[in-house]
Amino acid sequence: MMLIPCPHCGPRAHAEFTFDRPVEAITRPDETPDALVRNLFSRENPRGPSRELWRHTYGCRSWITLTRDTATHAITDVRPVGVGA
Amino acid sequence: MSGGQRLSTGGLIDRSQTLRFRFDGRDYTGHPGDTLASALLAGGVRVFGRSFKYHRTRGLLAAGVEEPSALVGAGEGGRFEPNTRATDLFLYDGLVAESQNRWPSLALDLGAVNQLIAPFIPAGFYYKTFLGPPSLWKLYEHVIRAAAGLGRPPHLPDPDRYERRAAFCDVLVVGAGPAGLSAALAAARSGARVALVDLDSQLGGSLLGDPAQIDGQPSKDWIAGVEAELRGLAVRILTRTTAIGYYDHDMVHLAERVTEPGALPGPDGIAQRMWRMRAGRVILAQGAIERPLPFEDNDRPGVMLSGAVRTYLERFGVAAGQRIVLATSSDDAYRTAIRLCDAGVRVEALLDGRPADGIDPALLRRARDRCPVETGVAPVRAVGPARGVTGLETRAAGGNVTYMADVVAVSGGLTPSVHLHMQAGGSLDWDEGQGIFTPKDPRQGQVSVGACAGRFRLAEALADAWRAGLVAAEATGHRPVADAPPRSEIWPFADQASAFVPAPGVNPKKVFVDPQNDVTLGDLDLAWREGYRSVEHMKRYTTLGMATDQGKTSNLMGLARLAQNEGRPAPQVGLTTFRPPFTPTTLGLWAGEDAGFHVTPLRRTPLYDLHAALDPPWQAVGYWRRPRAYLRSGETLATAALREARMVRTTVGITDVSTLGKFEVSGPDAAALLERVCATSVSKLAVGRGRYTFMLREDGLVNDDGTVWRLGEDRFLLTSSTGGADRMAGLISYVRNVLYPDLRVGAANVQEHYAAIAVAGPRARAVIAAVVEGMVPPRHMSLDRGVVAGVPVLVIAASYSGERAFEVYAPSHQAAAVWTALSDAAQAQDGGLYGLEALEILRVEKGHVETGGEIDGRTSAHDLRLEKMLNPRGGYMGQLAQQRRAFADPDRLQFVGLESLGGPIPEGSMLVERPGFAVQGHVTAAGLRVLEEGFIGLALLKGGRARLGDELLAWSPTRTASARVRVCEPHFHDPAGERYRD
């Protein structure tokens, strides 16, 4: 079980969080149907760093983005959603 | 005379006390400190069970958790635990245990006939039966099913408790052998918060079966001293606790046996405890497991690992046999031979497969002072009947020689236990000479020390582990102490040679590699010839290492055989995955407290107790529970539901709809947020008015539906379906916080803040007028506020049933009084309560779509006839996705009504022209006319909107029910909505 450093609460167990989606799958209502399908359903499945949207559902309930290595589960660069890159 | 016996002295058992137990119906005795295995061995038992496939007799191979053969069922009734290892069960008074895989008895086993047909059940036998004609499989199936399975499950519920605990530490030390103790001591003295766990009942690990001198004292005293010091340093010491899995970010699962298998727990009733330990650093000191040697009939009772023979002697004071012959390829067996001789046990010979020049002369001399030692001698065959060996046939330069013995102690060298290191994502080095994999490149906070790192010499292990303890303490923010590590006597002999290849001429079909699954070298060769070249394929095809011991003593031998057949070095052939758990666990350990009532949470509506007092049949809706109907005496569920539905159509009924999702959205941009979440127009809604709404998913399909109400200029109430409430809460938060963080709006989930009570029927208006003080009942799709029984309420006029109806929202903690007032008023109007079944009958007749029914995650707004309500200004989630080509397919499943031309329409049935024809759709809900005659239904039908008047068959072959139906508009009751007007 991973240990995720919530930017608001500090390191907490994975079980407190819910994975939502890779950041690239955050689609806007004005995206074309083709782009939408590509981002929602035809994404890359990288071995290595993956930028993801999570929610601290059973904690502070805030949305966060983090970079998780899909091969090692190493977690880096955690930040509140909408902050920075 | 053959078999084991208890020596008059020695061992770590408490001879002052006697424990009584039963095994296979016979009475035995033992002492505290015994395992079931050691007590039975002392009682002269040689045969512990029969093997899985061929039902060959099997005895003890090992003394620890790696034991593949001596599996027993322990305990009685609900406490019965199958497949537990006799070597991993500490004796208690009153233990009842039984052997496995024997019928009718261990001595006479009819399944043993499998041995005779062994040539016909080769590797991959099951798979091969699948390749034959199906008729043949039907023949095999009965035989296979009868023979399959290991042990038998208990028949009664487990009466004991299982507990889960979370814990944290700086340094977790797995294994309390010499290396683990040394590491724990170094880390604890440096100030780190240390946890030390060991699967054994006491600390000491290999020292318990292989005593030594450490720091000038006998290891027994050294262990006691270290334990006392560790306890003084507040180290958390957990015995009978197995580190079963190493997961991400240094999370280690620890399975603690609070109570021995089958035993009555203490006053707290806890049988086992699962620890979830999050560690800063993990020191792995799991030790090593000895390997057997390959020779014919090497699975006979009496063939034991050399280290196990030594453990039974030193720890339990049991001589495993009367005449022991040892066969080895490692120095370790010399220690066994010497100890046996010194204890007065007769050692026939020590047979070393290695040439004399490969063995330290000093070691040879020490052994030869005590017993005959031959070098360059390979074991060929265990001699003796099924009940146990009588000797060992060997081959040397001069020819074959048979040594008489009742125990053949074997040592093919040690295999480091790298399980947790590999679970943590580490990699391995291969040492061809010793035939061992050793850990390298840890990926998490793990470090391996002692024998599990391939350091078999005690002095080295102590010193290495000490350093690792200091490093771990420093890494977790502590200053390492400057003390010197523990020192041991110098026993410099710890060489071993790999011994995976049997002597020339040995029949590989008789050499067992995995005794628990009856896999021989011949099976591995056959699998290879049939093309199973990948180690993962070979494993699955032959079932090597797939038994409950997960191949602890056998995997490496199998891997070596594959490498040999392939002509490649072992590491290139690859390793199978080391999966948790390290040893088998009971299901109760994983279930923990989540059993029975606690399997799922129960969500109660604020009116739950009022319903429960009427003892209605309940319907589980997610975690909620809702009354299906309020039965009167003599009524069935169906007749009660119909009575309630007729009551709503003719007078008035009230029902609890508190489970609906409810969200309050407020702020200057409240309408803007809702117009992104909902697919319908919201901003044009007048204050005090509401409307039906629905939401789309990002892919354009309908997500959920509900109603939206404008409470004030900047304030809205949004409702959603019961099942969709949690999903909608997530969606609103996502749209608000991720997509449009700049909107000036707040959204609160108020689902449990308010109870909601629906009042429906021609006399609903009269009920509201009578009960809500000072209120003119609002017209349809309007709202107003008032007071009921002193409780402030919000009344919205909305209908699900198709009648004039209201929903009364009251604060949860005050809702009971409101319910009672409404219920009394309804009864005064010849009405009453109705439940979920009536609600469904009413909504089907009205033709409302339902989330989970027609809104099934595959239907679009157009499919559900909702497209006219879509917000023409767009901008909502899922809008553009509706332009995808598939949305215009004329063959999409579309929402229609069905009129039966005969009897009831089977719910869930398929729509076909005739039985066996192509499926054109399915019935999503079935019902009947409430006040008139006739059966009706709702359905999703291919191109349904253009097929009004078509006749089809609603066919349910699984229920052998069907009905002829005619496709119609899905509105059977008051299609114009005239009943909503006063």
Summary keywords:
heterodimer, A: mainly beta, four-stranded antiparallel β-sheet, 6 strands, 11% helix, B: 982 residues, alpha+beta, six-stranded mixed β-sheet, elongated
Describe the structure.
The complex is a heterodimer of chains A (85) and B (982). By secondary structure, chain A is mainly beta. In chain A, strands 3-4-5-6 form a four-stranded antiparallel beta sheet, with no helix packed on it. In chain A, strands 1-2 form a two-stranded antiparallel sheet. In chain A, 11% of the residues lie in helices and 39% in strands. Chain A has one helix and six strands. Chain B has 982 residues and is an alpha+beta fold. In chain B, strand 43 (791-796) and strand 44 form a beta hairpin. Chain B is elongated and about 110 Å long. Classes of the chains: A mainly beta (85), B alpha+beta (982). Chains A and B meet through helix 1 of A and helix 19 of B.
The helix/strand order of chain A is: EEEHEEE
> Quick one: how many beta strands of chain A?
6
> Which stretches of chain A of 5+ consecutive residues score pLDDT under 50?
none
For CATH, the homologous superfamily of chain A is named as Folate-binding superfamily
**Largest interface in this structure:** A-B, 27 and 30 residues
Order of strands side by side in the largest beta sheet of chain A? 3-4-5-6
Low-confidence stretches of chain B: none
Mean pLDDT of chain B: 94
Count the helices of chain A. How many?
A: 1
The helix/strand class of chain A is mainly beta
Assign the CATH topology of chain A.
Answer: Folate-binding fold
Task: Briefly say what this structure is.
By secondary structure, chain A is mostly beta strands. In chain A, 11% of the residues lie in helices and 39% in strands.
